[in-house]
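call fold(seq) -> C-alpha coordinates
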Amino acid sequence: MKKSISIIFISAVIISALGLTSCEKNDVKTYSELIIGTWKCTAQTGNTDFPPVGSEITFTKDGKLTVGVYTLNYSVSTKTEAIEKYGSKLEDYEFDGGLPDGICLFIDYGDECGAYPIKEMTKNKAVLADENETATFEKVK
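ret:
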Protein backbone atom coordinates (compact mmCIF):
# COMPACT_ATOMS: atom_id res chain seq x y z
CA MET A 1 0.00 0.00 0.00
CA LYS A 2 2.81 2.38 0.93
CA LYS A 3 4.55 1.57 -2.35
CA SER A 4 1.42 2.40 -4.43
CA ILE A 5 0.96 5.74 -2.65
CA SER A 6 4.61 6.60 -3.42
CA ILE A 7 4.12 5.72 -7.09
CA ILE A 8 0.94 7.81 -7.27
CA PHE A 9 2.69 10.75 -5.57
CA ILE A 10 5.71 10.56 -7.91
CA SER A 11 3.40 10.30 -10.94
CA ALA A 12 1.44 13.36 -9.77
CA VAL A 13 4.67 15.37 -9.34
CA ILE A 14 5.88 14.42 -12.83
CA ILE A 15 2.54 15.25 -14.45
CA SER A 16 2.42 18.59 -12.62
CA ALA A 17 5.96 19.45 -13.73
CA LEU A 18 5.12 18.61 -17.34
CA GLY A 19 2.02 20.75 -17.14
CA LEU A 20 3.95 23.73 -15.80
CA THR A 21 6.59 23.56 -18.52
CA SER A 22 3.93 23.60 -21.23
CA CYS A 23 2.50 26.82 -19.72
CA GLU A 24 5.79 28.72 -19.81
CA LYS A 25 5.91 31.91 -21.88
CA ASN A 26 7.36 31.53 -25.36
CA ASP A 27 10.60 33.57 -25.39
CA VAL A 28 11.02 33.53 -29.18
CA LYS A 29 11.18 37.14 -30.35
CA THR A 30 10.57 38.64 -33.77
CA TYR A 31 13.14 40.83 -35.52
CA SER A 32 10.90 43.81 -34.71
CA GLU A 33 11.27 43.01 -30.99
CA LEU A 34 14.96 42.11 -31.13
CA ILE A 35 15.96 45.38 -32.82
CA ILE A 36 14.70 47.57 -29.96
CA GLY A 37 17.65 49.15 -28.12
CA THR A 38 21.02 50.69 -28.94
CA TRP A 39 23.38 49.03 -31.42
CA LYS A 40 27.01 49.83 -32.21
CA CYS A 41 28.42 49.32 -35.71
CA THR A 42 31.45 47.04 -35.29
CA ALA A 43 32.36 46.19 -38.90
CA GLN A 44 31.60 47.14 -42.50
CA THR A 45 32.53 45.99 -45.96
CA GLY A 46 31.77 47.48 -49.36
CA ASN A 47 30.48 50.90 -50.27
CA THR A 48 28.07 51.20 -47.37
CA ASP A 49 25.40 53.77 -46.50
CA PHE A 50 25.58 52.80 -42.84
CA PRO A 51 27.11 55.08 -40.20
CA PRO A 52 30.86 54.54 -39.65
CA VAL A 53 32.26 51.80 -37.43
CA GLY A 54 31.88 52.90 -33.81
CA SER A 55 28.62 54.78 -34.42
CA GLU A 56 25.57 53.95 -32.34
CA ILE A 57 21.98 53.64 -33.57
CA THR A 58 19.03 53.52 -31.18
CA PHE A 59 15.74 51.87 -32.19
CA THR A 60 12.58 52.53 -30.16
CA LYS A 61 9.32 50.59 -29.90
CA ASP A 62 7.40 53.39 -31.62
CA GLY A 63 9.27 52.97 -34.93
CA LYS A 64 11.88 55.71 -34.51
CA LEU A 65 15.61 55.39 -34.88
CA THR A 66 18.24 57.88 -33.78
CA VAL A 67 21.69 58.24 -35.30
CA GLY A 68 23.62 61.17 -33.86
CA VAL A 69 21.29 64.17 -34.10
CA TYR A 70 18.98 62.57 -36.69
CA THR A 71 15.70 60.83 -35.88
CA LEU A 72 14.03 58.82 -38.63
CA ASN A 73 11.12 56.39 -38.95
CA TYR A 74 11.83 52.70 -39.54
CA SER A 75 10.10 49.36 -39.84
CA VAL A 76 11.20 45.74 -39.92
CA SER A 77 9.09 43.90 -42.46
CA THR A 78 8.96 42.20 -45.84
CA LYS A 79 9.18 44.16 -49.10
CA THR A 80 5.49 43.49 -49.75
CA GLU A 81 4.50 44.97 -46.36
CA ALA A 82 6.86 47.93 -46.83
CA ILE A 83 5.39 48.79 -50.24
CA GLU A 84 1.98 49.06 -48.58
CA LYS A 85 3.44 51.37 -45.92
CA TYR A 86 5.90 53.49 -47.95
CA GLY A 87 4.39 53.25 -51.44
CA SER A 88 6.31 55.13 -54.12
CA LYS A 89 9.29 55.78 -51.82
CA LEU A 90 10.31 52.18 -52.57
CA GLU A 91 9.76 52.43 -56.32
CA ASP A 92 13.51 52.31 -57.14
CA TYR A 93 13.85 48.99 -55.36
CA GLU A 94 11.16 47.46 -57.54
CA PHE A 95 13.27 47.98 -60.67
CA ASP A 96 16.85 48.11 -59.34
CA GLY A 97 17.63 44.40 -59.31
CA GLY A 98 14.67 43.85 -57.00
CA LEU A 99 14.70 43.01 -53.33
CA PRO A 100 13.87 39.49 -52.20
CA ASP A 101 10.67 39.44 -50.15
CA GLY A 102 12.64 38.56 -47.02
CA ILE A 103 12.85 40.51 -43.81
CA CYS A 104 14.51 43.91 -44.22
CA LEU A 105 15.13 47.02 -42.17
CA PHE A 106 13.36 49.87 -43.97
CA ILE A 107 14.41 53.42 -43.10
CA ASP A 108 12.21 56.34 -44.16
CA TYR A 109 14.44 59.23 -45.23
CA GLY A 110 11.54 61.52 -46.09
CA ASP A 111 11.46 61.51 -49.89
CA GLU A 112 12.80 57.98 -50.25
CA CYS A 113 13.13 54.77 -48.28
CA GLY A 114 16.27 52.68 -47.78
CA ALA A 115 16.00 48.91 -47.60
CA TYR A 116 18.62 46.81 -45.80
CA PRO A 117 18.19 43.00 -45.85
CA ILE A 118 18.65 41.37 -42.44
CA LYS A 119 20.99 38.39 -42.84
CA GLU A 120 21.31 37.59 -39.14
CA MET A 121 19.71 38.90 -35.96
CA THR A 122 20.04 37.65 -32.41
CA LYS A 123 19.54 39.46 -29.13
CA ASN A 124 23.19 40.64 -29.25
CA LYS A 125 24.19 40.75 -32.94
CA ALA A 126 22.74 41.97 -36.23
CA VAL A 127 24.15 41.66 -39.74
CA LEU A 128 22.61 43.70 -42.55
CA ALA A 129 23.87 42.82 -46.01
CA ASP A 130 23.15 42.81 -49.70
CA GLU A 131 25.36 42.01 -52.68
CA ASN A 132 27.40 45.25 -52.30
CA GLU A 133 27.67 45.98 -48.59
CA THR A 134 27.65 44.41 -45.15
CA ALA A 135 27.38 46.00 -41.73
CA THR A 136 27.67 44.18 -38.41
CA PHE A 137 26.20 45.59 -35.20
CA GLU A 138 26.45 44.56 -31.56
CA LYS A 139 23.82 45.48 -28.99
CA VAL A 140 25.09 47.79 -26.26
CA LYS A 141 21.81 48.50 -24.39
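The chain has four helices and eight strands.
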